[in-house]
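Batch manifest, entry 17 of 40.
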Amino acid sequence: MHLCGYEALGLEFGRLLVGLRPDLASILLDEEVHVGFFEQEVRAILVHGGPSADGARQAGKAWRRRLPRTVDRYLRDESLALFRHELRQHILDVIDERFCAVELMAEPHSHDS
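Output type: structure tokens
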């Protein structure tokens, strides 16, 4: 579950990177493949229900609770100061959308401050 979350986070940073350096688009393509793989694996666990699905959802919720602090560390560089709040919120929202889409969460996480 943690790998799925970190791959999704890596995908968002890959998108930011390609916006600045289009020549690095192959990184984004790799991240999209990785995220797709892990989301497919998570769906396979969840579709069967039971303790494994419950454990995956609990792990997803726990990882999501820690995500704001992780994103804050990743966005700490002073060059991002003007965009930090918007980037942070965008990343959190996109991760929430992905987690809802694979049914790790029933609804988006409450906005973090």
